[in-house]
Each structure stands twice: as structure tokens, then as C-alpha cells.
Design brief:
Layout: H1 11-23, E1 39-46, H2 57-72, E2 76-78, H3 81-91, H4 98-104, E3 109-122, E4 126-139, E5 145-162, H5 168-184, H6 194-201
Parallel strand pairs: 1-2, 1-3
Antiparallel strand pairs: 3-4, 4-5
């Protein structure tokens, strides 16, 4: 049996649509890589791209991904971002060997993210996020890569958003929440219908 939802564009309708979506069962997509349960994970982001917020972009993205892993994986120990940044600064890490960072912070695995070609504007009048992302998982015990995807292009929203409706900082928060969710959920099961709710809320 299907569920039909018909309504106009309104806050109430968006909330009702989201509730219906989350009530639908049996649509979970399994994790693409499910090896993080009961493990200590270091999330390391490598990028030279500038941020529109108070913190470096790599720290903002790493913290967001780490938080989503903690929320969605039943038993996981995520290394605090401040501990990772301190190790990187003290050891002049060159961004090449993820296992080296993992060993330095006693992690079992490193979730490494390379981010390039980052932007939040499409011309002067439209906000549209864009990133080229490569995701890699490294087993710190062996130094071997156990999972990798990309480089993939992440663009959102599809039709952009008029610059008059927001500003750099607020749009960046919105786009990075969307981006980090799509990176993190490769490692836990999720309901793909959440994307409909995200689009409706936007």
C-alpha cells in the first residue's frame, strides 16, 4: 500500500511530510563500509580551502562527520578533533600517510577525507555548494586502505539559492551539514527518504 501526501508549500506541510517519511519502515540502506563498530576512529580532513566561519574548514568538517558517526553507530570511540589537530601540528604531518596520524592518536582506523574545489557560490547572485571529495579508510594496524570512494562531486542544492535570501556563513553551515551527512552515512545504515525531508525543509 502506498502513502499519498498532498499539500501546499507551508511549514506545517513540510513538518507533516517529514513525519510521514520517518514513519515509513523497511527502507534502510546498509552501510557501504560497516567496520567501525566497537573501534576507535580518527576522522582526518585534508584541505587547503578557506572557510567562511571562525574555524578552519578541515576542523569544521571533521567535527561534523565525527558527531554523525557517534550518533548513528551503536558502539564507537571517535578521537576528539582537538587531539588530532594537536598531533598534526606537533609532528608537521604532510597529509600523505593517514596511518601515521592514526598511530599517533591510538586509533584503529582513520577515516580520511580529501576535499578540493570547494565553493559556495555560483556567480554573484546564487548560492550553490560544490566540493570534490575523496573518502578513504585506513587500517592503522596494517597501513592498508580498506575502503575508498571518489573523487566525487557534491553539489547542492540543485537549483541554488538566491543570494538575497542568505549570506556566506549561514549558507556554508547549511551546505556543510548536507555534505558531511553524505560522507558519514557511508558508514552506517540510513533511510534514503531522509533526502526528501532535507529537500522539503530547504
Amino acid at each position: 500500500a502506498g502513502i499519498a501526501v498532498v499539500c501546499g508549500v507551508s511549514t506545517g506541510c513540510i513538518g507533516g511530510l517529514a513525519q510521514v517519511i520517518y514513519m515509513i519502515k523497511g527502507h534502510d540502506v546498509p552501510a557501504e563500509y560497516a567496520g567501525f563498530n566497537e573501534k576507535r576512529i580518527a576522522v582526518v580532513v585534508v584541505t587547503d580551502e578557506p572557510s567562511h566561519g571562525p574555524d578552519p574548514l578541515r576542523k569544521t568538517i571533521a567535527r561534523s562527520i565525527a558527531g554523525k558517526l557517534e550518533m548513528n553507530i551503536e558502539v564507537i570511540d571517535v578521537v576528539p578533533e582537538i587531539e588530532i589537530s594537536q598531533w598534526i601540528d606537533e609532528n608537521n604531518w604532510n597529509g600523505a600517510d593517514f596511518a601515521e596520524v592514526g598511530d599517533g592518536v591510538d586509533a584503529d582506523f582513520v577515516l580520511g577525507v580529501y576535499l578540493d574545489d570547494y565553493s559556495i557560490r555560483q556567480g554573484s547572485t546564487i548560492y550553490k555548494g560544490r566540493s570534490e571529495v575523496t573518502v578513504t579508510v585506513v587500517d592503522c594496524a596494517t597501513g592498508k586502505t580498506t575502503y575508498t570512494t571518489g573523487p566525487d562531486i557534491f553539489e547542492y542544492p540543485e537549483n541554488g539559492r538566491p543570494a538575497l535570501q542568505t549570506d556566506d556563513r549561514r549558507f556554508e553551515i547549511f551546505y556543510l551539514a548536507w555534505l558531511t551527512k553524505r560522507i558519514a552515512r557511508q558508514f552506517y545504515k540510513h533511510n534514503p527518504l531522509e533526502d526528501v525531508a532535507d529537500d522539503a525543509a530547504f
